[in-house]
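We modelled the chain as a single entity of 221 amino acids. Its sequence is:
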Amino acid sequence: MTSEHLPVPLARAAMRVMPAPLLQRMIDVLMRGMRRSHPGLFRNLERLDAAIIRINPSDLPHQFILTIGQGQTSLTLADAECPPHRACVQGKLRALLDLLEGRIDSDMLFFSREIEITGDTSVVVGLRNTIDREDIDLLKDITALCGPFAHPARRAVSLMNVAAEKIKNRLAALYEERHPDVAKARDAQNECDRLRAEVQALKTRLAKFEVRRKKTEAATS
């Protein structure tokens, strides 16, 4: 896996303003490309029990329907006529992409509730285990659709992301120079975030220990 990834703010902004029909066409093209790039992944997905999973990025205006098992895997935009789903996965777009690309331990996402699951959790566990066996790089898969221009496109997206971060940081620094109280509040917020992350990490470890304890008790009973 490379150190470059799909810029989440750029992807979020594009998906917020893109008309649903155009977004669906792009999803279809991407799914066809990923099927060519990851044939093993799609074969494994189609061996699972048939299931419909609703995916709800909490910071996007769209929801998605993922159909897996016993047939061709598909990803479509949710609408009023969607069939009933067996499970629902909800979280911010960044957490969902981290889960897809394996950039963070999936158990930690679930235990920390950055990803919430409702419905039949066994369906999501099967999906997660299947995805975890594959090395997925969405930026690479998306820019591969540009054919011979894939590498320049990937480089351009990375440079855009770096430039956007520099502009954002520079504007923040200029604002804080004029408003020193903002800088103090930011430092206090960063410290709170650090402490909150430490507490969350401890909760995650405790949750894992609890799961292991229950498994041990079940095995010995």
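As a brief sanity check on the tokenised model: The longest strand covers residues 51-57. The chain has a mean pLDDT of 82.
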